Amino acid sequence: MNELGTGGGARLATCFMLAVGLLCTSTTLIAAGDVPSEFRAIDGTNNNLDHPEWGSAGIELARYTRFIFGGQSVDYSDGVSAPAGENRPSPRAVSDAVVVQTASVLNEAHASDFVWQWGQFIDHDLDLTGTAAPVEEMDIPVPAGDAFFDPSDTGTAVIGFMRSVYDPSSSPREQMNQITAWIDGSQVYGSDDARAAELRRFRSGELKKGRRKLLPFNVNGFPNSPSTDASLFLAGDVRANEQNGLTALHTLFMREHNRVARDFRRLGDEQAYQIARAIVGAEIQYITYNEFLPVLLGPDALQPYQGYNHLVDPAINNLFSTACFRFGHSMLSATLLRLRRNGQSLPAGDLALRDAFFNPAQITRYGIEPLLRGLAKQQAQEVDTMIVDDVRNFLFGPPGSGGFDLASLNIQRGRDHGLPSYTQARLDLGLTQPITNFSDIPASPDVQAKLASIYTSVNDIDVWVGGLAETHTNGMVGPLVYTVLKDQFERVRDGDRFWYENYLPQELRAKYIDGLKLSDVIRHNTPIRSEIPDNVFVVR
Questions:
Q1: How far is residue 411's CA from residue 416's CA, in Å, rounded to a whole number?
Q2: Cis ω on the peptide bond leading into residue 172 (within 30° of 0)?
Q3: At 150, is the secondary structure helix, strand, or coil?
Q4: From CA 280, how far away is CA 51, in angstroms rounded?
Q5: Is 250 a catalytic residue?
Q6: In a domain, 530, yes or no
Q7: pLDDT band of 20, cuts 50, 70, 90
Q8: Quick one: pLDDT band at residue 404, thresholds 50, 70, 90?
Q9: pLDDT (tens digit per residue) in 242-275
Q10: Which of 252, 257, 297, 525 gets the most CB atoms within 10 Å of its CB?
Q11: What's CA 292's distance to the chain center, in Å?
């Protein structure tokens, strides 16, 4: 058999040997029959052959629990669509009373900033719920004299808020998930054919890239957040520019796709693209379940994988996307470290989180490598009720100039979606410890007192706030968040016919997946080497 060499034959190039039915990728000989013959639909349909719409883009978020027949409680004030919490305090008042953070509180698990950053990256693979059209305003009242949002003590200030897109035929109101529910790399590739095509180079199976192997710019005006401006990067998810750490991961996995696609380029553009997409999706699954979740939920939190189960609906739980998987907001660091190879900060300095929002120019100028080193180096904040000022008072800009309070938005979003209160959600999830007084909440006395200072009744506590308040019993989170995350990540795995352990041929798993770490992906696609640890999710 002839070999196609590069650099005097130092490594084997990718080749497809029609005569013997073998594909040769750098170091591994793979039979053509070991290449997948079926690939995921970009919109997530036809994964479950009995229920083709399960997990697909554009279906309702679920109100699902394993513990109560009929699902979770719906808490619209009129039982149908009017927001919950009509007698609760303003979300900003709750934020001011409970969520203020005055000093750094590092997490006890020594989790790095990669835990919250990977969580955001995965969240954008699982769920997206945009704004209703026509717009339904639901502005958040600001307490008079609020130091940031009403310093002139007008008593009329509000934080702008618009209700979520929903299925108009639903009763009670059900919000929509606009992307696929699968862990399939949709944040890299998109969840519709038009976006997927726009991202492709249509040569050698590769995705488009910009200068210095950065993401391409949105030159054709595709939907993007916060606008379709051509100065913003384009990726599979509209939120890729949200902050620079997230953009760095999007860029990394665009590069990883192209690295893998080059191994299969002799098969032609379409086959190389689809195989690389399948492998990258499997890599994201593997990293999530073997590195990220063990740090977050503790080792062996999930039931062992027993194979594909066609009876399992992977639909994203409204309680998961709207409250519990927003745990990472409390872990955010006020500063994104930007480190050189020697561990020192760039001459330009580190980047305040408030300056990282929708700021692709920082990536264009300094690249992604300083950010990736910084995410691995810095210990994240604790999972608790507190979040840093950069997102509590300066989210997307200063107050009065486009700024928001992320805590207030989370609380208001839960009310918009009719999520059950904290105490009702615990009942729905089968958490049997009774909570009838603030002192019954499994939280510190200080947190109990803060909650009692703002909520009239323990039954009024918003579920996002209550979930964060709980003392950690499993990994880095309390029982409510743990229960919801465990359920969701088991269902999205077990109900996926294309889950890597069920779908990907053994030869490809052995070469690309088994034993993979996020640090490997970083080292394959950047000049970064020993300056990051093998496990970038933990700071030691």
A1: 9
A2: yes
A3: coil
A4: 25
A5: no
A6: no
A7: very low
A8: confident
A9: 999 999 999 999 999 999 999 999 999 999 999 9
A10: 257
A11: 12
| β pairing state of 140-141 and 335-336 | unpaired
pLDDT of residue 373: 98
Close Cβ partners of 137 (under 8 Å, ≥ 6 residues apart): 160, 161, 162, 163
Count the helix, strand and coil residues of the chain and give each as a percent rounded to the nearest 5.
Answer: 40, 10, 50
Amino acid at site 468: L
What is the average per-residue pLDDT within 519-537? 98
> What's the average model confidence in pLDDT over 99-115?
97
Q: Could you identify the residue written with the tokens 């080059």?
A: 262
- Cα 222 versus chain centre, distance: 21
- DSSP for 225-272 reads SS---TTSB--SSTTTTSBHHHHHHHHHHHHHHHHHHHHTGGG-HHHH
Query: Hey, which residues does 217 pair with through a beta bridge?
Result: 233
Domain coverage including residue 349: 35-525
Q: Which two tokens stand for residue 501?
A: 């352990």
Between strands 59-60 and 176-177, the pairing is antiparallel
Taking only the tens place, the pLDDT of each residue in 146-164 is 989 999 999 999 999 999 9
- Please, which residues bridge with residue 25 across strands? 28
Catalytic residue among 51, 124, 329, 417: 124
Q: Please report where in the chains the tokens 């989170």 appear, as a residue.
A: 477
Does the residue 531 lie in any domain?
no
Residue 34's pLDDT band (boundaries 50, 70, 90)? Answer: confident
- Can you tell me which residue has the tokens 């200030």? 157
Q: Is residue 426, in this structure, part of any structural domain at all?
A: yes
Average pLDDT across the chain, whole number = 92
Using CA atoms, how far apart are residues 218 and 478, in angstroms rounded to an integer?
40
Q: Which helix (H) or strand (E) holds 320?
A: helix 318-322
Total domains in the chain come to 1
DSSP symbols for 53-86: TTT-TTEEPB---SSSTT-S----TTSSSSPS-T
The reply to whether 5 falls in a domain is: no
Helices (H), 358-478: 360-366, 369-377, 389-392, 406-416, 422-428, 445-454, 463-469
Residues 360-391 have pLDDT tens digits of 999 999 999 999 999 999 999 999 999 999 99
Number of Cα atoms under 13 Å in the Cβ half of residue 446: 6
Specify the 3-state DSSP secondary structure of 370: helix
Q: What is the CATH number of the domain that holds 385?
A: 1.10.640.10
Indicate if the pLDDT at residue 123 is higher than 70.
Answer: yes
- Looking from the CA of 386 toward its CB, the CA atoms found within 13 Å total 18
Cα separation, 35 vs 41, whole angstroms: 17
For 43-73, how does the pLDDT look when each residue is reduced to its tens digit (9 = 90+)? 999 999 999 999 999 999 999 765 544 577 8
